[in-house]
Amino acid sequence: MQIGEMAQATGLSRDTLRFYEKRGLLRARRGANGYRDYPPEAADWLRYLRTAQQLGFTLAEIEADMPLLAGAGDPAMAELLRAALARKLADIDARIAGLNQLRGELARRMEAQAQACPLRGDADAAR
């Protein structure tokens, strides 16, 4: 499958396909004419990759766990993939907790009417 066909089949741009290939996330054979020739299973791999990105995985994480995604149909690999998803969920939960803490601090500073400047901390106000 040439790059235009792969772009149409996956909804990705040619530039995105070239970028993934440059990063080593996608492989293509080169024909005698120099055109890229992607195997049909590359479309499935790209769908896995895009799903992983939509679930919050970075390209670096996908690169590190690429064998997990490539073997997602294998029961042994599926368990490893579940572990990777659990780690991502824990990371998201930690970020949410951090954002809730930050939100609380911002709300506290907004409600503090006594301070002339809400960015001055309690230690600064005592000076």
- Poorly predicted runs are none
**Strand order within the widest beta sheet:** 1-2
The major pleated sheet works out as:
2 strands, antiparallel
What structural class results from the helix and strand content? mainly alpha
Rg, Cα atoms, Å: 23 Å
Secondary structure layout plus pairing:
Elements: H1 3-10, H2 14-23, E1 29-30, E2 36-37, H3 41-54, H4 59-64, H5 66-70, H6 75-111, H7 122-125
Antiparallel strand pairs: 1-2
Description:
With 127 residues, the chain is mainly α. The chain has seven helices and two strands. The mean pLDDT is 87.
What are the main properties of this structure?
127 residues, mainly alpha, two-stranded antiparallel sheet, 66% helix, elongated
Write a brief structural summary.
By secondary structure, this protein is mainly alpha-helical. The chain is built from seven helices and two strands.
